[in-house]
Amino acid sequence: MELSEAEKSFLTYMRVERGASEDTVKDYEGDLKAFFAELGERHLTEELTSDDLERFLTRQSAAGYATATLLRRYSAVRHFLSYLKEEGLYEGEVERLPLPKKERRLPDVLTYEEVEALLEAPDISTPRGLRDKTMLETMYATGLRVSELLSIRIKDLDLEEGTIKVKGKGSKERVVNFGPYVGEYLNLYLGKRKNQKNPYLFPGPKGKPLTRVHFYKTVRSYASKAGIARPVSPHTLRHSFATHLLENGADLLAVQRMLGHSKIATTQIYTEVSARRLYSAYSLFGRRK
């Protein structure tokens, strides 16, 4: 079979039977094109050999591609060869190759001054500005995920106790605390909110919660207004929340519970961020003496 035909059949299989997202399918399509380009004059599935995958990855690595790209291309080609073998279109072996571990990218964190500037950016004299200020303050004070923040219902909020009941990943519920300062803004916002009957704390149009895209654009807009030149997303506030807590002596297990992480290892990455920030500050101080 022609490789181009096999590719179309495989991508359809990934969409329909494996339920892969369009982004994944698009990435795999690009990875397979790169693989086919390394095959030279061979255009048939019957001409593939057991050495092709290893040879492909060796050349890709030599070309300087990042580890994340290499891992994804390995996955794409290996899935493709496995599919061909099941369909009787490939007789070689589907090798499992030793691969480098993906580099762990440390989260981007705002400085205390940047957080302050971001939180002060909304104009609270307007209904929208007050809503946005309340959202930003709540997110930074609790470390909620974007989806958790936007799905809060008013019944989940206890202003007297200073708590919010949230539903996290895997539908796991947890209770997060917020301080009096955030409570004041929540009280002020709720008292001036237009649609008092809407069950969501931060409703969007047509009675539904605000979308993640809307909130993402909102955060980017206020970051620009605050003079923060680097990219800022809602998740940056969550990263900053965790890192700043640890820098101020918070217990790692307590931060794990606040963030809703199922594994302590996920939370430990923020200790690395905190250590690097402190080391950078120490180095700067040393240079200025």
Notes on the structure:
The chain folds into 2 domains: 3-86, Tyrosine recombinase, N-terminal domain (DNA polymerase, domain 1, Orthogonal Bundle), CATH 1.10.150.130; 112-288, Intergrase catalytic core (hpI Integrase, Chain A, Orthogonal Bundle), CATH 1.10.443.10. With 289 residues, it is mostly helical. Helix 1 (3-16) runs antiparallel to helix 2 (22-37) and helix 2 (22-37) crosses helix 4 (67-86). It has a 3-stranded antiparallel sheet with strand order 1-2-3, with no helix packed on it. It is 57% helix and 4% strand. The radius of gyration is 25 Å and the shape is elongated. The chain has 12 helices and 3 strands, in the order H-H-H-H-H-H-H-E-E-E-H-H-H-H-H. The N and C termini lie far apart (70 Å). Residues 278-289 have low confidence and may be disordered. The longest helix has 25 residues, at 264-288.
